[in-house]
Amino acid sequence: MEFQDFKGFIPPRALYKDIVKAALLEDLGHGDITTSCTIAPDIQGEAEISAKEEGVLAGLFVAMEAFVQVEPSLKFSNILPEGTQFDTGDVLISVSGRASAIVMAERTALNFLQRLCGIATLSWRYCQKIKDTACRVVGTRKTTPNLRLLEKYAVRVGGAFNHRFSLSDGILIKDNHITACGGISKAVQSAREKAPHGLKIEVEVTDLEQMKEAIWAGADAILLDNMTPSQIREAVSIGKAIRKELIMEASGGITYDNIEKFAATGVDVISSGALTHSFKSIDLSLKLKL
């Protein structure tokens, strides 16, 4: 299989081939009864996957993996590059070979592709809304279990960035950590003493007093949770005055319709779980020709 690399972010095949294998097993069960009863095994064909609405392309390599796992001899052509903005009617990829294999892999391939295109498209739309600001849009860990790698990849294809991939990637002290540790200052101090020196420490806060305590305790970044744009603007002004290099992040209640108001507050980062839990899959179809 060959496809155009998207700025080096395409995951290695070893990280997604088993995910595709499990998806095919789920869909095929003991075999595709309809196909085996209606399509002779020697029939050859060509199919096109085309768009029924506009979007941003992400995940063709996963769709191709589904086809290849069913039939390694299938061939691909007319492959659009990852990150392409496509319109209704555009052909994303063509696949040719044994017709029965193409039909058996169809649903699994489309399920992955439609989902990842949907995430990339929503991410792109969020980014376009604030493209004239210095604020960065990031996706969170609110992903489908076992599909995080692929979904976070799609976020990047759409132009947004990623927060932590897993709990081992960074320190984000939240309300339950603060409660269990006995306060913000104690939590930050404990993290500073025990964590690797290269990790930044971020603290989630809900008001200005918590923010000030976190900053004076030595936090490298502040997550302003469920605060209004006016509250965030004040928090950014105070926080940056205390420490200019402080990273300020806003999260909670931020949507496509209001993201511009939050970006205008001066925050460095806006994190949104909606990119991976409230997207709409892009409508795609596969048509077989003999």
Topology as a string of helices (H) and strands (E): HHEEHEEEHEHEEHHEHEHEHEHE
Taking Cα atoms only, what radius of gyration do you get, to the nearest Å?
23 Å
Shape: elongated
Order of strands, widest sheet:
7-6-12-11-10-9-8
Number of alpha- plus pi-helical segments: 11
Alpha carbon gap, first and last residue: 23 Å
CATH-defined fold name of the largest domain = TIM Barrel
Top-tier CATH class of the largest domain? Alpha Beta
Low-confidence stretches: 1-5
Query: Mean of residue pLDDT?
Result: 95
Molecular structure report:
It is a single chain. This protein has two domains: 13-121 and 279-289, Aldehyde Oxidoreductase, domain 3 (Alpha-Beta Complex); 128-277, TIM Barrel (Alpha-Beta Barrel). A seven-stranded parallel sheet has the order 7-6-12-11-10-9-8. A four-stranded antiparallel sheet has the order 3-5-1-13, with helices on one face. It has a two-stranded antiparallel ribbon with strand order 2-4. By secondary structure, it is α/β, with parallel strands linked by helices. It starts with 16 loop residues before the first helix and ends with a strand. It has eleven helices and 13 strands. The protein is elongated. The relative contact order is 0.15. It has helices at residues 17-28, 33-38, 60-70, 99-129, 148-157, 175-181, 184-194, 208-217, 229-242, 259-263, 274-277, and strands at residues 44-51, 55-56, 75-77, 85-86, 91-98, 136-139, 161-162, 171-173, 201-205, 221-225, 247-251, 269-272, 284-289.
